[in-house]
Queue: 2 jobs
Job 1
Amino acid sequence: MHYRQMGRTGLRVSPICLGAMTFGDAPTGFMAGVSCDEDTSRAIMDRAFEAGVNFIDTADVYGNGLSEEVVGRWMKPRRDRVVLATKGRFTMGTGPNDMGLSRLHIKQAVEGSLRRLNTDYIDLYQVHMQDARTPIEETLEALDRLVDEGKILYAGCSNYTGYRLVESLWAAERKNTTRYDCLQALYNLTAREVERELLPACNAFGVGFIAWSPLASGLLSGKYRQNMPAPDGSRLAAWKDTMARLDRENQWKIVEELAACAAELGTSSATLALAWVLAKPGVTSVIIGARNVEQLDANLAADALTVPAEILARLDAASKVEPGYPYDFIHRVDGRW
C-alpha cells in the first residue's frame, strides 16, 4: 500500500479508505436492506487491514450509531494502528439542538461517538455538512477545544461549498484555531463538479481530499447495464430514487467507455474507476464500501493499478462536464483557468 500525506499535516493514510456505512445490519434508516451483519463487517475489516488499509471512515448517523459500535469493537485491539475517522452534524435525536454545528451539538456528537467507538480519541473528526445557521467561528472554536482536550487529533469537513471551505480556512487563521485539514466530497467519473473550485482550493491551501462514492453508488462497478433492471439485492435496486437520477444517457456512455477501457487493461470497471480518482492531483484517499470480501478485493486492487495516460484521457473525455460561467469566460479570454 502506498501511503499518502493528509494535506499539509504529518498524518499518513492509505489511498484506500474503508467506508463503514454498510457495517451493522441496520433494521431501519437509509441503509436498511443494503448493509451487512457484524461478522461480515469484521471479515471485511480484517481483510482490508491485512492488505495495508490503515484508514476507516464512519459517521454517527450510519445505522443510527450501529456502524460506530461495530467498528469500535473490531478496532479495540488494533487502536494504535488504525486512523479512525468519523463524522457528525446530522440529526441524532428529537430535540432542536440534536443536529447542526453549534458548540453544543458538536460536543454532544463527539462524546456520543467516543462512547460508541469505545475509544478515548478520534484521529479525524469531520463535520458532515456545512451549517449556514451557525457562525463558522463557533464551529471551529468547538473543534479547537476538543483538540485541546485530546478527544480529536485532526478536524475535517465534508459536503462544503468552495466559498465556505475558504471562509473556514480564513477564520481559523484569523482566530488562531484548529483548521480543516481535509475535505470529504463526492467525486467520481459521473460527478466531477469538485474540479471547478473544491479540488483547486484544497491544492492551493494544503487541504487533503477524500473522495466519497467513487463508484457512483455502484453504477461504475460493472454490474449495471442500460435498459436492464438493477440486480436483485444491489444498492441501486433498493435506492430507486438514486437509480432514477443516475439513469441518464450521458451516464451510460461513461459506464460503457469505462467497461471497454477496463477490458483492455484486464481489470474490472470498479478497479479502474477507483484508480481514475486516485490518479487526480490532490486526491489523498478514496472511500470504498463493501458488503462482502469479494467486493473489497476488487476495490483494493485500485492502489496497484497504474493507468496509462491514454486510458485516463479517454475516461476524461467520456466524462467531461462543461465548465460553465465564469470558468469558460475566463478560459476564452485568458487561455487558462
Job 2
Amino acid sequence: MKLSTPLDRAHALMEGRPDNTQLRLRFFERLADCELFILLNEEVKNENLSPELLSYEEAQFVLVFDSEERLSQFSGQVSPYAAISGRMIVNMLAEQNIGIALNLDVAPSSFLLPSEGVDWLDNLIRQTPDELHAKPVAFFPPSDLSADLLQALDQKLKTASGLAKEVWLARVEYEDGHKGLFLAVIDARSGSEGALAKAAHEAVTFSAEENIQFDVVFLSNTDKSLEIISRQGLRIELPEPEVLKPIVSQIPGGDPAKPPKLH
C-alpha cells in the first residue's frame, strides 16, 4: 500500500522503530490533529452521532478513516459519515469503553487503539499549562534543542495563522534562579492566548522531551524586554492567514459551542 497521508508516514516511522517514544508520540499527535471521517449507521440528527461499531475480541471500536475515499473503500457503498478532528473523536469516546479502528484494512496506517489508549490520549491533549508568576532576569540563545522539539513547535505554531504577529524562542533564567525555555508570543489576537499556550505546550508534550521548564508569555511589540529577546532568541515564522470567503459550516462539531454527542 502506498504511503500517501501524514498518518501513513507517521505510522510507518512508529512501526519501523517500535522502541522510539518520540516517533510513537508523533503518530498520536498526528492522529489528534487530523480531520478524520467517522463511519455512522445513520445520518446525523440534532448534533447526535450514531457511529458504526466494530466488535473485536470482546471490545468495541468506532471506524474512522483519514479520507472519504478510504471510508468508501471500506464500506463498499454510500454510507453516512461525519468529518471531525481526531481530538474531538477522542474527547467523545473517553471513558466510554470504546476504542478507535483507524483505516481498517484499507491503508498501511491500519491501527487499533483500545479504549485504554483513547483515555490516555484524551488525558494528554486535555492538559493545560500552569500560570507563570516568576520574573525573568536574563535571556540566552536556545542552544542544544533537539530537532524534534523545534519541528514540533514549528508545526504546531503554523496552525496559529493570524493569531499573533510573531513568536520568539529563547532560554531564560528567572529571579529565583531556575532556568527553562521561554516562548514569547507577540501581539496575540485577543482571546487566542489560551489556544496558543496549549498548542505550544502540546508540542513539548508530544516531542517526548524530558525535564524541560517551558513557559509561554504574551507580549506587545512595544515591550522593552523584546529587544533583548530578539537578539538572543530564535524567531519562529508564522504563516500569513489565508483570505477565505465566509462559509456556514455543516460539519457536526463545527461550532465549538455545540460539540457533537454520541447517540
